[in-house]
Task: structure prediction
Amino acid sequence: MDVTVLAGAIDDVDQLTQRITGLLVGSVMSFMVVAAVVTAWAKSKSILAAGVALAGGVALWFAVMNAAVFRDSVGEDIAPNSGSVKNAGAVHAVVRVVEPVDGARR
Result:
């Protein structure tokens, strides 16, 4: 009986931690986007600059929220020690030695 109660408590703490993390990430990211837009507007008084700041902030927010998806997709696309990458390049390199021209400074 005690193990079941402990498992429930651990699950409750995990869910609470996930909600707090989501709230913090959402509030901090929204504050950063608003601050970037306000700063861009204050410095330039340009709607275009504020729009670019908004687009950049939203793109960054999207990347932060989907970091795990990006990490996993990169891990699938680039596999270490894969045969296609190892055998894709040339085996030998050509080196050319160029002598300095007479009278040229070194």
Observations:
- The helical segments are 2-44, 47-65, 67-77, 83-86.
- DSSP finds four helices and no strands in the chain.
